[in-house]
Known about the structure:
By secondary structure, this protein is an alpha+beta fold. It has helices at about 1-25, 65-70, 105-115, 140-180, 185-190, 195-200, 210-220, 225-240, 250-260, 270-275, 285-310, 320, and strands at about 35-40, 45, 55-60, 80-90, 95-100, 120-130, 130-135. It has two domains: about 30-140, no CATH class; about 185-320, no CATH class. The protein contains twelve helices and seven strands. A six-stranded antiparallel β-barrel has the order 1-3-4-5-6-7. Helix 7 (about 210-220) packs antiparallel against helix 8 and helix 9 runs antiparallel to helix 11.
Amino acid sequence: MLNHIWLALIVIGILTAAGRDVYDVTQNSFGNGIPWEVRLEGPDGEVTGAGQGTAVQATLHVSVAQLRAHFSTDAISTDAALPARVTFRDDGSASAQIDVRGTEAERFTVMAEALGGGETLAANLRRAGAGWEMRIDDVSLVYLRKVTNAAFEIAGLAVEIALGLIGIMALWLGVMKVAEEAGLITHLARLVRPITVRLFPDVPAEHPAVGSMIMNISANMLGLGNAATPFGLKAMEELEKLNPKSGVATDAMVTFLALNTSCVTLIPATAIAVRAAAGSSDPAFIIGTSFLASLTATIFAVTIAKLLSRVKMFRFDRAEAN
């Protein structure tokens, strides 16, 4: 079901982007093929020309009338002054690298991104009467390109996260195995048995799932989310062995998931590290508020999970599963 939802969202995103691109083409929202009449002003006043290969820093002035005409909108109320580096050719024409950062005409920024210039928009200039005529490459498929680029970026990020978890999972699963062989997990499970019996009545007190859940909760309490992940996966794997109806979450699975995602955090180590790296003057200042917020979230999440397990629509019926 979740796969179908993700597929539907992807299709909706692609269709929305395609629809927006079709609208831009039909309305010529970027003024493709239409030359711009601009005024070129340098440090010493208006620029009329220079020798071949000469490069100057100048400002391209575009009137509000030109902006409205090219972008097919009345929402623009001021002229645009665009910083540019202009290089002149021997025939009197010139090329310009326009800095679009900070311009109120945001479509210049969209055009620069669509043409691959980032924050710089390339244009060609030639004399036209008392001013200059500017031409910019045609812009199309802006939003489809954005959707495609975002898809590739997220796919790459997913691979990086997955690869980054390999070492952590190997380390902490090894630690858990050593602790299990040494009997540490068994002793720890016995220590917290009064709590686990109430939270997970369907899970035997000596079952390996209890140890994995305890290790997961311990890591979360220290704010070590990455370290908690392999224990959480191992706990779910062990709980699935007790599941008489594979593919349907048991009450214990739901309760553990609620506890895992909202676990009480005594020391938010990861958040403190991020704040310290960002230059915070007091990175540990969030300890108290983090503890109260996570404690409230844990109580609420576990309470809701337990209450919903009593509702017929959400109740896991073992008799039916068997």
